[in-house]
Amino acid sequence: MHGNVDEPAVRAALPERLVVEAEGLRIGVVHDGGRRAGRHERLRAWFPGCDAIAYGHSHLPEVVRSEGVWILNPGSPTERRRAPARTMIVLRDGVPELVELGA
Questions:
Q1: Fewer CB within 10 Å, N- or C-terminus of the chain?
Q2: Hey, where are the domains in the chain?
Q3: Check: CATH 3.60.21.10 for 8-102?
């Protein structure tokens, strides 16, 4: 899956959205979930049948359950930008956990 700062050749070679399976879960992955307004609904529509949906771009962590689907933004382990800490998400027995790595 490509991100917003990838070169044109990389963007052409990689999909915008991807579904992967991990720990028995179907996980939809996209770099940018779009505007905050309507984001959860939009992500669920993009990835029907997924147990979890991971997005990034904003660098602001999010771990919420929306209509039975985990909506996940791991934040960033390197560039926290506006977030209070550097973060990532790990799956433990199929349940996402936000891990803070410090400021």
A1: C
A2: 8-102
A3: yes
